[in-house]
Amino acid sequence: MNLTRLLFAIVVVAVASQVSAQQPSQPARHFDGNTWWAHVKFLADDRLEGRETGSEGLRKAQSYVVDQFSKAKLQPAGVEGFYQPVKFVSREIVEKDSAAALVRDGKTQPLTLGEDAYFSTRVEPSPEEVTAPLVFAGYGLKIPENNYDDLAGLDLNGKTVG
Q: Domain map of the chain by residue range?
């Protein structure tokens, strides 16, 4: 055995003995597919109402998970036991007060919301007016096996893509 392997073996034995000395012996736990599936079935059950934020179904799911964590003797790391407060930001689109239009050469072309334009509450809203050149990019498809790329050769920097 060469010196490198000998040193490696000594380090492995030393680390293993330190780890085993620091941890109390615990019985080996094995994966149990039936138990796992029971958890999935409970958390996916219609009685939990989709676990919507703030719903009674979400509270039942949370309680179930905390109970399972406790039974597994896990230690909580949240600021409130197993719970961790999260701040939510709420946005709402008021369609009657919303509009979108394209302006070109001083001419305004209104867009129909839901057909020509969509607003999303999932992203940070942009300023009231966006001024940028508009570039048509088809569907933005890239299909390498057909040597097809809608975006090939387009300069999109600082532009709105439609």
A: 32-88, 93-128, 132-162
